[in-house]
Design goal:
Largest sheet: none
Radius of gyration: 22 Å
Order of helices and strands: HHHHHHHHHHHHHHH
Shape: globular
Distance between the termini: 60 Å
Structural class: mainly alpha
Helix content: 55-70%
Strand content: under 5%
Length: 370
């Protein structure tokens, strides 16, 4: 949910589209999770909704790494020293951490006593982003080409260490502290989630090295690597033995991290083809969401999990949940448009622009004559 990348040039518009698609599946996933009746949560629609929605945090973390790679490369090109580059990279974590606590405080205060005070310290995805950026900031000392290799190695190390962290006896560590590091289905702990930031850092560094005329080849390699990671990791995950004594596929498995990374690379490759060839200049509601993903994340969480639709929580059928998801998505698109402005945006649906201009051109109503 980092700041939009659309300003970095048309060739990187696919990153906004990728982030927007992640926001889209996040919205439907959260709506189904909050509103679907409990007795329908073993059915196909709900299961599919949650399975798809599980990709969203991985995409957001990966793209956070991409922007971190851009920042490190820009700092080096500005001639900053090694320590200054590290500080510049780590400084972004402070902003994300402040937003994370403001977000939790807003959710807690709006709950009006129905949320425990411990929710203020819940380790959410923004917390993971902040900690991951701090941990990866030392990679800024390397040249961009070297950073690609070192970021991949770091990501593999984080993912591989996750089952080992679960195997350790951390009962002496306070739960609120342990939640930052120990893999847990209820938190976004550093292990293994920060691996996506490291892999994104490698990807962002590659994009900085590639010229525009090389982008098609880069995305071809990304797609091939995506297929390789997806099917290769799935093969090893299905082996009847494991090097780990305590591994939960859905919580701490390195194979799951690599499979999701493969899916992200495939999604980014498709987004590149779509934004470069299928819809190069037109307005896209998916990319629109991606450009304001932090705002969309914050507001939709309050709408979906707050008190606004309390009477409908955990009571809807699958069909009704789909209608609710469409409503929330529409509201978030309108919010995003209101945030960025649209009337002068190239490619925005012509009808809306024509209606806007016609309304503004109408003269003020005159009082009736005697």
């Amino acid at each position: 949910m980092a700041k939009t990348l659309s300003r970095t040039g048309h060739r990187l518009a696919f990153l906004d589209w990728t982030r927007g698609f992640a926001a889209l599946i996040m919205l439907q996933g959260h709506v189904f999770h909050s509103f679907t009746a409990k007795d329908l949560r073993n059915d196909g629609p709900y299961t599919l909704s949650q399975f798809c929605g599980g990709l969203t945090p991985a995409v957001f973390l990966f793209l956070t790494g991409v922007t971190l790679g851009f920042l490190m490369d820009s700092s080096a090109k500005k001639g900053l020293g090694a320590w200054d580059r590290v500080q510049t990279s780590a400084r972004r974590a402070g902003f994300l951490l402040a937003v994370a606590f403001l977000f939790r405080f807003q959710m807690w205060s709006f709950a009006m006593g129905q949320s425990p005070w411990t929710d203020l310290f819940k380790v959410d995805i923004l917390n993971c982003m902040a900690l991951g950026i701090v941990a990866l900031s030392p990679l800024a000392v390397f040249e961009t080409r070297e950073r690609v290799r070192n970021a991949v190695i770091t990501g593999l190390a984080i993912a591989s260490a996750a089952p080992l962290i679960n195997a350790m006896n951390l009962s002496g560590v306070h739960p609120l502290v342990r939640a930052w590091f120990e893999p847990n289905p209820n938190f976004f702990a550093f292990f293994p989630w920060a691996a996506f930031i490291a892999f994104g850092l490698a990807a962002g560094s590659v994009l900085r090295l590639a010229e525009d005329n090389e982008m098609h080849r880069v995305m071809q390699w990304a797609a091939m690597m995506g297929f390789g990671l997806l099917f290769g990791a799935q093969y090893f995950a299905n082996l009847p033995y494991s090097v780990y004594t305590n591994s939960d596929f859905w919580v701490n498995s390195p194979a799951l991290i690599l499979m999701k990374t493969g899916i992200i690379l495939l999604l980014a490759s498709f987004a590149f083809l779509w934004t470069r060839h299928m819809n190069p200049n037109g307005w896209s509601f998916v990319r629109q969401l991606g450009g304001t993903s932090l705002l969309v994340y914050w507001v939709h969480t309050e709408l979906v999990y707050g008190r606004w639709f309390g009477a409908m929580k955990e009571s809807l059928t699958a069909g009704q949940a789909v209608v609710m998801a469409v409503l929330i998505i529409t509201l978030m698109v309108l919010l995003s448009v209101a945030r960025t402005g649209w009337k002068d945006r190239p490619g925005f649906p012509v009808w809306f622009r024509q209606q806007w201009n016609a309304w503004r051109a109408e003269p003020m109503a005159q009082p009736a004559g005697d």
